[in-house]
Here is the input.
Amino acid sequence: MISLAGRDILHAWGKFVFTGVGLGLLIGVTLTMAGVYRGMVDDARVLLDNSSADLWVVQRGTLGPYAESSSLQDDLYRGILGMPGVARAANVTYLTMQVLRAQGDVRAMVVGVVPGGPGEPGQPGQLVAGRHITHSHYEAVADVASGLRLGEQVQIRRQYYRVVGLTRRMVSSNGDPMIFIPLRDAQEAQFLKDNDAIWQQRRRTTSNPAVARSQVPGLLDALLAAQESNPYVNAVLVQLENGADANETAELIRRWKRLQVYTRDQMESILVGKLIRTSAQQIGMFLIILAIVSAAIVAFIIYTLTMGKIREIAVLKLIGTRNRSIAWMILQQALGLGLIGFVVGKVAATFWAPFFPKYVLLVVQDTLLGLASVLLICTLASVLAIHAALKVDPAEAISG
Here is the structure.
């Protein structure tokens, strides 16, 4: 049996290949969009993994510390350490901001941690270069995605920090690289007011008649000191003892400390189900639109190619070729175009994924699903061309 699809491809292989490449670039964009969503989910999970925490203790009634703002007194961790099942507890602050450097600035999540080694709650994991933070001030560990180098100085608010260590894949749920600094410095950067605001607050306090008439020695100084100190953190990260039940320990902390506590599963649900939900819906809409556009393009191409060989199809009908054979040959051409496009799209997505500013994660499941979707779209798109081919009158083969 003559393969009409094969003969047509060989006859006009250049047009067919270039058409497949164009379709492949569209498929590559589709695979990349799916990879962007996978990357967002992976960033959220990496953020939780990097915290080395089993429980997140935050301000009551909030979804902190990542999805909402949360503020706690920094001495609460001592009481949490005494709760049954708790092995370690450490304060942490998170602040997303523009960090200044000599070559400009970089968007980063500044994380305040208690100086110490790896394994402590909130501490960065394995370093690719340098060392961990050991001093209480003016040292930083940065993710390599920030572009910072060992020994480089960065400015966070009013202070300068020297990068003493580099890590990898320490990012926020938005994909921003993390920069770790000592907790006290981070508290000052996040909660301390600027000099003008402090001066204005002092002026308001000293001009308050109730304070001025106070006979309590040192009360004014105590009020001023309280206003200018920073006894707040965003969360307390908790590690549990071996065998301790996360849900039971979380319930004990909620009951006795009157704080909000989230387990790992609950925090992942907040990040994936709430924080990146809108972005995921947008990506889903783009994938649907791209699938519809791809189907329309394939349908138009196959229909055009089929209409270009109406006379050949009429000859086949005249010599007794069955409709099923004609339909199968057209379907072969559509599937061949889809396979070429998919291979080009997969290669293109793999090539340009590392150049995206956000992490693009291409997984095997999405590749297989994409291949199945392309073949299904090509099959459906060929229906119009098959319908047109089957309506061809064999008499057209001998007509003028």
In short: Residues 13-51 form the longest helix (39 residues). Residues 206 and 213 are 10 Å apart (CA to CA). Residues 4-44+277-397 form one domain.
